[in-house]
Structures are given as C-alpha cells and as structure tokens.
Amino acid sequence: MSYTLAELADKIGATVHGDNNCLIHSLATLTQAQQGQIAFLSNSKYRQQLAITKASAVIISEDCLEECPTNALVMKNPYLGYAYVAQMLDTTPKPAYSIHPSAIVDESVKLGEGVTIGANTVVEAGVELADNVCIGTGCFVGQDVKIGANTTVWANVSIYHRVIIGHSCLIQANTVIGSDGFGYANDKGKWIKIPQLGSVIIGNNVEIGASTTIDRGALGDTEIKDGVILDNQIQIAHNVVIGENTAMAACSVIAGSTVIGKHCTIAGLVGVNGHINIADGCVFTGMTMVTKDITTGGVYSSGSPCQPNKEWHKTNARIRKLEATNAKIKTLEQQVSALSTEN
Predict the structure, then answer these.
(1) pTM for this structure?
(2) What is the rounded distance in angstroms from the CA atom of residue 228 to the CA atom of residue 207?
(3) Separation between Cα atoms, residue 342 and residue 256, nearest integer Å
(4) Containing H/E element for 7?
C-alpha cells in the first residue's frame, strides 16, 4: 500500500514541504532509503546523513529543513511521526487468518466476529474471545479466560485459567500469563506449596514482549493497568500491580506484592524488591536495585558502570578497606577535637 505525502501529513499532523503527491510505499533509514521510501531524523547524531539521503521524503523538525535535499514532512516530534507512519506502512502478517482445522476449541467458547485461531492451538471451556481477537499457532488458552476485542496473541503463548485481558493488546511469542507465583511455606526444611488462587488482570492497549512471565496472584490478582508496555524476558511476580503507561525494558524483575505507579520507566536489568511501593513518574536506570519504598518521582540509579579489570580490582580492594579507613578517620577527628579543647 502506498500513500501520498499529503495523506501521511494529515495522519501524523505534519506540514508538507515539496510535492504533496509524492507516493511513499515503505520506510528506511537515511542512508539506505531509495525512491518511494521515507526516512526520519530525530537524533542530531545522524544529522550529517540528511544531506546525502536518497529518500523521497524525510520526517524532520523545522530547524533541519534548510539542510533537507528532498521532500519533507515537518513536525515538532519527528520520532513520533515515524511511529505513526510505521503503523500505516506496517507489513507484519497476522498470526492467523482463520480458525485452523487443527485448533481444538471447546464447544462452550464464545467467539466474536472475525476471530482467528492458528494451528494446534487449544482453547478450553468457558473462554470468551471478543471481536477480531487473533490467537497464533500453538497457543494454550485456559478455562474461563476473557480476551477483549482486537487483541493479538502470537505463537506459543500460554494463558492460564481465569486470566482477563483487555482490548487492543499485543502479546508476543512464548509469553506465559497466569502461571503460579512463587509461594511456599517451610515445614522443618521441607517446602510446602501454596496454591495460587488469584489471577492476572491485564488492561487495554497493553503490549507484552516475547518470553515474558506474569504470575497469577496468591489470593488477590496481579494487575497490569492500561497502556503498560513490557519488553522481552521480564518476570512479574504474584500480586504485583503496575500502573498506567509504565514502560519496562528487557530482563528486569519485579518481586511479589510490589505496587508500581503510573508513567514510570524501568530500564533493563532492574531488580525491584517485593512488598514495596513506587511513586508515579519514577525512572530507574539500567541495573538499578530498588530495595525500599520510593515516595517521590524522579531518576534513580545504583548500577556500577564497567571499568578496566585492573581498575575494578583496585576499587574493590579499597571498598573492602572502607570500614577500617572510616575507623581511622573517626580516631583522627577525636584527636583533633581533643587538641582544639586543650588550646
């Protein structure tokens, strides 16, 4: 499918500089784009590439217009424009195009209009799939699950019993939703399993990356609120609540019963302790370890940047001596204080 620049501009809220009727069929980078393709510039690091681009058009900000050798779509936030244009020109196929003959769908399942279910998928009793839900190949949808309209589930996803998923969600391959939380009691060294009796409730417009796991609640529910985006290989433990429009990058983990506020950003490899509360608007940089309540929004860090191995060993050796060094400083302070008193 192709669009004119005028059509693209109307959709993304940009202004055309050049040929309104120029046809665009796909996206590419500034250096790789050819005729019929559109690129974008949002990072000044790549500004020098603008002058040599062969793209038919570029999405840029006003301050770059004089340097643009081709048609332009001008807007305040070119990266946002890129996102909207990418949606319009998206060529990703659907996970399924019909209800495949090999799918096993219980006769009690309620199917909306336009539902598609891929090969070898199992949909158990009591499930409700709203209009235009798309379930990919090899999935498992457990008893009494409810999935809202226009939600897409990619291949090999497992959704356990009684999970509720809202409308317009996207769940990537190999994700598990509603598995047991890590609940055990210790009886003289023997671990006694605590059945996880809650569920998972996922809001609307939520995106969940590949191979992410969201555990069901022990008694209450694990909740992922509207607009949350989760990257690949994330662990969300039982009874966690994640507030609206919070974003979480790959390989981060949230321990049980923690409540995370709205509009937070959690970078990769972050670890959040259990049974704590995180305020709205918090940003945690990569490898941060969050061990206690955060009551005020802001940027928080604790990960140590890498350094040459020899320097790291020296730093580590000094850290081990900090206690002794601190004791020496206290002794010196006491001696100085005593001398001052004598004088």
Answers:
(1) 0.91
(2) 7
(3) 58
(4) helix 5-12
- Residue 144 region by backbone torsions, left for phi larger than 0, else alpha for psi between -120 and 50, else beta: left
Task: Please compute Rg for the chain using Cα positions.
Answer: 27
Exposure b/e, 151-182, CB count within 10 A at least 16 = b: bbbbbbbbbbbbbbbbbbbbbbbbbbbbbebe
Residue tagged active-site, from 17, 167, 238, 313:
238
For 50, 162, 273, 329, the CA distances from 47, given in Å and listed in that order, are 6, 51, 42, 52
Structure tokens at 285: 């940089």
Q: What confidence tens digit (pLDDT) does each residue in 197-234 have?
A: 999 999 999 999 999 999 999 999 999 999 999 999 99
Structure tokens at 74: 């001008």
Catalytic (active site) residue 313: no
Taking a C-beta distance cutoff of 8 angstroms, is the pair 161, 144 a contact?
yes
Q: How many alpha carbons fall within 13 Å on the CB side of residue 142?
A: 15
Residue linked to tokens 């604790």 = 302
Question: How far is Cα 206 from Cα 216, in angstroms, rounded to an integer?
Answer: 17
From CA 192, how far away is CA 175, in angstroms rounded? 27
221 sits in the region (left: phi over 0; alpha: psi -120 to 50; else beta) called: beta
**Token pair in block for residue 56:** 């038919």
From CA 256, how far away is CA 137, in angstroms rounded? Answer: 31
Q: Fill in the amino acid letter for 22.
A: C
Q: What's the angle, vertex CA 54, arms to CA 52 and CA 58, rounded to 5? A: 90
pLDDT digits 0-9 by tens, 52-110: 999 999 999 999 999 999 999 999 999 999 999 999 999 999 999 999 999 999 999 99
Do 259 and 278 meet the contact criterion of CB atoms below 8 Å apart?
A: yes
